[in-house]
Fold these 3 entries.
Entry 1:
Amino acid sequence: MPTTTDSIRGLSRAFAALTLLLAAPNALADSRSAEGRVHDATEIKTVIGPENFFAAEGLALLRDGDPEKALPLLQKGLKRARTDREFVIGLSNICAAYVLLKEPYTALTYCDRALEMKPRFWRALNNRALAYLGMDDLPRAKADLDSATVLAPQSIKLKQTREIYERLANPVEPLIIIDDSPMTDG
Amino acid sequence: MRLVAFIGLAIFCGSAVIAAPAGVPKPTLIISPEYPKRAFRDRIEGEVEVCFRILSNGRVYRPYVSRSTHRVFNRSALRAIKSSTFEPESLDTAFDKACRRYQFRLKPLEPEQKPTA
């Protein structure tokens, strides 16, 4: 029979996947817009679909919860990155893939590289926090989460990651108290 | 008087504590509300008071939230009271309108219950 702890672990894993996957679409949008700006400035050409096909396909697979197939595509996409911004997003997505593959130490190297290039990239901070959570390094996870929350205070993904952190660091269980005693005003 | 028996439907293995003093309608089926997921995620605690009438068959009639510390709990509290029933025999005019308070609390787990991974 599953225990409360098992339930929390299962939920934590599910939320970890969800958080990473949900973090991806906007990153792709950023990538596309960055590329668009580059071409506007240099030359005019017709492009159908995403320019960095491998990055886009890898991201789609990552969103579908298939990091094994996503990873080689994301690696290829990283090699074809044309801007620093796209490169940083690629690093962050590869970091996310490794987190999903439960290889947090490898994930950390990619997130570190991304954050060296762009220290205020909150998605990479979020992914690195998840990597730290996978390594049971709760203080560093909290530090990254706090930094990311300053940059994106309303992010639902960060709230989900914080929930995972709180479940590991300060687990609680719900308690409902039903009180039928007569009302007292005030 | 503390009522020991309860039917707990709270998610996340939640538990319920029921305080039912004499002089109020005697419940026959107590449904514990679910702890709202968003409130649990954001670690929000709160309290909701719902008032209602009791039909002659013991069913709850026209419940409404009379007091709430956070609206995130309202729907869950209303759903719970709508599913609850009371003993028809105990009904009189005094119980034409009754109220119940739901306290949503988060209880820290004991150290040995903490997940390790």
Entry 2:
Amino acid sequence: MISVKRFKKISSTNEKAKAFKPWTVLIAEEQASGYGRKGSQWFSPKGGLYFSLVLPKSDIHDLQILTILAGFAVAKTIKDNFGLEPLIKLPNDVLINGKKVCGILTENVVGKEVKFSVIGIGLNTNIKEFPSDLNKTATSLQLELKKEVNNEKIMKEIVSQLEKQLKTII
Amino acid sequence: MDDVAKIKNVSNMTLKILVKGKEYEVEITEEPEGKIKVKLNGHEYVFNSNSKEIIREEPLRISSAESTDKDVRAPLNGVISEIFVKEKDEIKKGRKLLTLSAMKMENEIVSEVNGRIKKISVKKGQNVKEGDILITFL
């Protein structure tokens, strides 16, 4: 049911996803201009996991739990696979040891009703170091585990978790 | 049996109630000081939770009958984060008009009509409530 489109480098998986049909996942090896809420920048070098899922129209009042469901899917995947203790900072960040490891941005395209939604997930997986302005607030799975992780496996597991969770609202 | 109200659907405190075959949508929200607000058929009724007496009754600011295709309204309470158009712009259906940050989500509001913008009633950074008019077309 879910189709996956892969990109080496694109501006942003969320931005690009708006041109795709529901239940498409877009995954990029790096983002030239990854962004978070209110246009803030998301550090997106090669090694990290950046993907977006396009969802069909739903009730706008139900959508507030989308981001929370996505945070839950990410945290559960990290905990189940790596034994780390992630903390969901509601509604849209996941932290490990007090530092941000994942950011989630939900965007809705709305006319008279919600036409579709995009959930974007930026997960710091295989990032060896952060720029000085992020060093104190950001971490990665590689830094926490002292080893590389498999981006493809993590993405598939998060998407599968999300699909299960989303069936409760879409 | 027809006199019995049946609750058909429950989500986010919005109930659909069937009475004598007619469906009514009732939205219930908690207000400060233990008051309960009930929206029904274009009216808001505010109750004290421990009494059946209505303490405030007011018409809803919008009802579907008043809403027109010429008004673009806020789908949620939030803050206008970007405006992409100006007054007098000719707009095609589907064009991105503005973004509204609400419930930690970014909501791109797109035009449902082809037409010219008469008035933009909001500014970047402004707080808006669900149902407020944001943009009016000629």
Entry 3:
Amino acid sequence: MNEAGRGAVHLLDEMVRIRRFEERCVELYSASAIRGFLHLAIGEEACAVGVMQALTADDAVVSTYREHGHALARGIGMRAVMAELEGKVEGASLGRGGSMHIFDAATRFYGGNAIVGGGLPLAVGLALADHLQGRARVTACFFGDGAVAEGEFHESMNLAALWHLPVLFCCENNLYAMGTALATAQSETDLSRKASSYRVPAWQVDGMDVLAVAAAARSATESVPSGGGPHFLELRTYRFRAHSMYDPDRYRDKEEIEHWKERDPIPALAEALTAAGILAEGELEAMEAAAAAEVEDAVAFAEAGTLEPVADLERFVTSGAPIPAGAPDPESAPDPESAPDPESAPDPEGASR
Amino acid sequence: MSLGLLEEFGPERIRDTPLSESAFVGAGIGAALGGMRPIVEIMTVNFSLLALDQIVNNAATLLYMSGGQFNVPLVIRMTTGAGRQLAAQHSHSLEGWYAHIPGLRLLAPATLEDARGMLWPALCDPDPVLIFEHGALYNAEGELPDDAGEVDITSAAVRRTGGDVTIVAYGGTLRTALSAADQLEGRGVSAEVIDLRCLRPLDDATILSSVARTHRAVVVDEGWRSGSLSAEVSARITEGAFYDLDAPVARVCGAEVPMPYAKHLEDEATPQVADVVAAVEQMGA
């Protein structure tokens, strides 16, 4: 098998893992092992998996409350993600964030933001830090079509374009902002035109085709090392399930859902790879079995996990690091080189404020 | 606000922004996450409401929500308060709202030393610091010693000692409190004046130890009385020094109206020296 073929098989594998993970989440939610809001991206896996192919370990990701796929595709361990969903201290965010707020310093995953549009300004700032420190990195920022109606979308697009910052804006357009259809919420339903109006290069991509998403993301990030500015991908996709587990999903036609299911990114790629002789008979089934085993391992890990001690309730409200007692020369500007490593955790014994 | 900085540090570090409060505050948070130590200047506290989501939902929560992985070393400066006839969208004292939020440190300089000396320790703080600068103080003039450096940003300061009553003030009301203390001295009342300086976390110890000596307390706050910082200070005195009190805690607050433009009405809506003197006299000090 050639390199492209192996790469495509890997993408299929990633999507299968995410799909199985989320299907298992539904069962765990019904069994009350997962609580709170649970937003599934079943059907949208190609977006997460495709975009991540273009990123390096140094790049950053800003995500939304519909983030399990982003987190897993970014390389956060399935055990840590599942333990987070089950509210265990072994979770990615110590069980403090749950499904909507997965954070991971090791993979520069700056969390699921549960305020629609709230993550976009953060992505601009992360890219600004990279620009100021001369680092050739990109910050991928995921959001949905709903976020395009928020002021923060427009402010962030403008600022990133104005300052020529390396943000890859990834709009997962699944046609509904919760229950509100795109045409009900947007006077201009061609979202890429909104990005173009800020002079941000924009692509419309078939978000059900992981190879297309990966190719578009690679093209968009190619210019980053040479100081390329922001780019915008409109990933046209669809969620096969409701907005969240609380959503009765009365606003979509069954026919529409079935139509999109015919474009399910997993069988679509599996069939294409099989037809091309890249995927051997039984390989998909083996992949699915391996994913199921990984998910069951993650569930077992989460269920064997422990709860954060109640005594730690107020830990990390603030870092608790002391204000330096020695008087640094106020005349000297803070040196970016000596700025603390954002990936180093603050004092774990931090006091609360 | 940034006079001379652009020339000295250049356009990469001194950035003029579009009027996009949410995006530029959020970008400050993101830059802080990315290893910078940004200072974001928002003009007025009323404008900061356009960035409230970023400040409250991101800056204040990320460290906690990420289980200690991502701290936000960001400094946000803004003007607060009335006194310049700027009416009801530029004059309010909303710092009390921010004082409600865990994860934020709030500073309110009332002196030249603090206005300058708070900035460096604020920049050194690993977590978000909001600095509320009262607009009426911007024209204050004075000489700082050559060796003026950083100041402590964790404690309140006793600006005047006295034995009969404790007047608690901060920011723009410190001058009012000190003037009231001068007048009270002429009437034989010795007032101690505390400058809160740090509005969150509050330095309870300095307040309570003063009240334990004076047995009376008046809180002066330009913010509205209902649900205010003055209410919090009053509650803490009641909780921590109730049996030391010889009279109920009194408050002198801004009138509960959107700030009017006309000078006489604006004066009426904000704590004046005579109001503080009257409050002290009514408690029988």
